[in-house]
From TrEMBL:
Transmembrane segments: none
Signal peptide limits: none
One Pfam assignment: GrpB
The protein's name: GrpB family protein
Domain of life: Bacteria
Lineage of producing organism: Bacteria, Bacillati, Bacillota, Bacilli, Bacillales
SUPFAM superfamilies assigned: Nucleotidyltransferase
InterPro entries, sorted: GrpB/CoaE, NT_sf
Length: 174
């Protein structure tokens, strides 16, 4: 059973993202359009589960599906869509500890703007970071070995955060 761990920001997270992104560029090749560091580890100074979330954006998910063996050889385990349609989800452990989550989506997916909006909103809004940090720490303390309860406990807050972030992001883009 994995412990729900929420830690202070680690300045090595962007470097870990860049190193892993380089590996993924080699695996995905010409199918790769963009690659983003998303999630809490992509927000400087923010509290996070110490797992780097990476969102490769590809031309074709079905072409990516054919690379499952190469992903496995590079330490990634596939979870299929894992409850989110039109996404391929992979995890990677390093020395027995979960270190990376891949959220592979096709170009044009609505998941792209959603993740980027939340990431950028948290980067720009310290009040939202403080609020969300408190919730995450409280839930990790309350449910130290129940990741499902931790995620469910954040659901309502995250839904509201996404709505605020999307409005802010779209206004900023226009």
């Amino acid at each position: 059973m994995r412990r729900v761990e929420v830690t202070d920001y680690d300045p090595r997270w962007p470097l870990l993202f860049e190193q892993e992104a380089e590996l993924l560029r080699g695996i995905l090749g010409e199918n790769l359009r963009d690659i983003y560091h998303i999630g809490s580890t992509a927000v400087p100074g923010f509290t996070a589960k110490p797992i780097i979330d990476i969102m490769p954006v590809v031309e074709s998910l079905s072409e990516t599906d054919c690379l499952e063996e190469i992903f496995r050889q590079n330490g990634y385990y596939t979870h299929g869509e894992s409850g989110i349609p039109d996404r391929l989800f992979y995890t990677k452990n390093v020395e027995g500890v979960r270190k990376f989550h891949l959220h592979i989506v096709e170009a044009g997916s609505p998941h792209i703007i959603r993740h980027l909006a939340v990431r950028d909103y948290l980067r720009e809004h310290p009040g939202a970071r403080r609020e969300y940090k408190g919730l995450k720490q409280s839930l990790a303390w309350e449910y130290p070995y129940n990741i499902k309860a931790y995620i469910e406990g954040k659901h309502e807050y995250v839904t509201g955060l996404e709505c605020r972030a999307l409005r802010w992001y779209r206004k900023r883009q226009s």
